[in-house]
Amino acid sequence: MTPEQTDMLRSLPAVGELLVDATVVTWCESHSRTLVVESLRRAIDEARELVMANGSSVPCVDTKTILEAAQQYLACASKPSLRRVINATGIVIHTGLGRAPLCDEAVTALADAGGGYCNIELDLETGGRGKRTSHVREWLCRMTGAEAATVVNNNAAAMVLTLRALCADREVVVSRGQLVEIGGSFRMPDIMTAAGCRLREVGTTNRTRIGDFEGAVTDATAAFLRVHHSNFKIVGFTEEPTVAEMAEAAHALGLLAIDDVGSGAIFDHATLGLPDEPTVPASIEAGMDVVCFSGDKLLGGPQAGLIVGRADLISRIESHPLMRTYRVDKLVLLALEATLRRFVDRGTARASVPVLRMLTMPMAELRERANRLRDLLSATVPGERFEVAGDETFSGGGALPGQALETVVVRWRPANLSAGEAVKRLRGGDPAVVARISEDRILFDIRTVRPEIFATLVTSVAAAAVDLNTNAT
Ligand SMILES: *Cc1c(COP(=O)(O)O)cnc(C)c1O
Asked: Of ligand 1's atoms, which has the minimum distance to the CA of residue 263?
């Protein structure tokens, strides 16, 4: 170590000295002392490391720079890590942004009952022990036509548990065209292994017939499994058995027919003006014995894995020891029940479940909203140009694969900096704004931005733009 470094290290302030600094005293008035001390310590440690690492040209680290760094740590530590984000990507079911936003009724239920006690496992009539899944069972049966239903904490868990409880140590037949990977860690062959089942692949990537399934049956076979493609599409020379064919063939051979519908569409999408998507009621109607789907994709509720189907099978699933490890908590159940109640009919669901409302929003309304946002931005952010344009987006969340949805965006080409830099600043804003970039412009897709948050979005954009202008000059 050089003498300069030693001097520099010796001159670094101690936490105790900084704590009596007038600025730091004011920090302690609005922040916990623990956080203030931790921030100071981190800033001092960082300064020490900087001095140690630069022997030849010792950097000047004075109290002022240390306090600045500490203030940044403090600001960071005082903000929740998980916080609200404005999703301006237009991707309605965005896994990185928490998938489905909850409906108002779910939010109210969380606030009302989540903040206190609730009858999650108490039968209020008898005073005896209740079952936590009972709160959503009837609604799930009503909307899917199934005999029985249960809930676990996500669809991956629903699949593992179903396979484990019904097909352990036996073979499950799946089409080669359906051995999907979803979101990186859900890979059908691995799920099968984790569930203790043997995967029996049949057919080819693009064509599988019911005869392929039948031909693969041995004494060890337990079930035929259909897996929704979710996030990809096979086009061209293709063939796959229908769910009705699979159910019929399975039953004729004394086997089970299991369906991983994934996205969880309840209503026929054509009637919603959306690209076609397999629905849960259609699978039940077709005779599938057990159907699994997510709560936070097209259903528009909290993260959950829903399992519906034959009563005796659901009962076997519910009594499996692993059920306890996938148990959902009261927050999920409160939000889920409130969401399921919106599915009482198509009109109510479409009007009040945000995912469905956003996906089915008419172009005229999107355009009208985009015009309003553009006017607000133009009036509030001086020196910047905003324009309305047509664009395309995707539903996200492994639903409606390959189906671009027509949408409307407000485009911004920042006057003073690159779109990349502006997007980074928007992400760091409060609240953070996540937007797409295309051709050096930032796109705010109106589909996922409610008019109620226009003012907040405009404030965030104005903050980013001001920063840009001052930094550029
Ligand atoms: C999304 C999806 C899953 C995984 O569901 P999670 O709720 O994310 O665990 C499994 N299978 C299919 C077909 C899916 O689309």
From this structure: 15
